[in-house]
Amino acid sequence: MKHSAQGAAGTGTGAAAEAVRIPVQPGAADVDRGQGGRVRARGAGEPDGAARGEHTHGEPPAPRPRGLVRRSSVRGQILDALRSALVTGELRPGEVYSAPVLGERFGVSATPVREAMQQLALEGAVEVVPNRGFRVVERGDRELAELAEVRALIEAPVWLRLGRTVPAERWAELRPLAEATVRAASSGCPATYAEADRAFHRAVLALAGNEQLVRIAGDVQRRTQWPPAGSPSVRGRADLVADAHQHTALLDALIAGDPDVVRALVGEHFTGTA
């Protein structure tokens, strides 16, 4: 089965991931304006524009989530939750989202949300819209296919080389991670599977001892997991389960030291060819 470009990124963990339901916010304001119309970011703990009687571009108040995120590692929790929302389609391509409204949704100030969104901008997931917020980048099938090709060019040769050099006992150590992808796929949650899938592939590539390889391949894999604009749905449970079972089949072949089977499975996993 082809390792689809529409795979399922980072999953949100903790209360942030469970609480967030991303509102649609066309025209949402991402900044406050002080005296003289000067633009400035609202600091942590500072009331939003509505509380100060300032213009908020008509945004409806966002309901507070049932559970608030912990103050420790707030930015990281929100970043995880936003990555999950990208994979599941809650953050919709083409839509603009403002940090203040998302902050209310998370029960935090706009500052950690803005910081998380800026990280997503560096990753290419969103783009800054001045005085409004962040727009989710729209990706077509061609771009995702190109990313999948780049990923295959990076990973497939490394898998084949590792298959010739890594001893069977080292491959056996990765069995729990491979089985974790099967459990995640069985849940039917694309964000949960995306995290487990990245963890397994990261562990395999780490055997090459090249940190830059792990980082670059991980970035490309994350990008392939965002669904394209106009996609009617994310990957289904059956597709995720089939993909996960390829992980266990690959490990079986690697442990058995069968290069022909490994080559066929690697081709199927990354390019859809056997």
Overview of the molecule:
By secondary structure, the chain is mainly α. The chain has helices at residues 14-19, 74-88, 99-106, 110-122, 141-165, 168-172, 175-187, 190-206, 211-224, 237-256, 259-271; strands at 32-33, 39-40, 96-97, 126-129, 133-136. It contains eleven helices and five strands. Strands 3-5-4 form a three-stranded antiparallel β-sheet. A hairpin with a 3-residue loop joins strand 4 (126-129) and strand 5 (133-136). Residues 1-20, 23-57 and 65-69 have low confidence and may be disordered.
Secondary structure topology:
Elements: H1 14-19, E1 32-33, E2 39-40, H2 74-88, E3 96-97, H3 99-106, H4 110-122, E4 126-129, E5 133-136, H5 141-165, H6 168-172, H7 175-187, H8 190-206, H9 211-224, H10 237-256, H11 259-271
Antiparallel strand pairs: 1-2, 3-5, 4-5
Helix pairs in contact: 2-4, 2-8, 3-4, 5-9, 5-11, 7-8, 7-10, 8-9, 8-10, 10-11
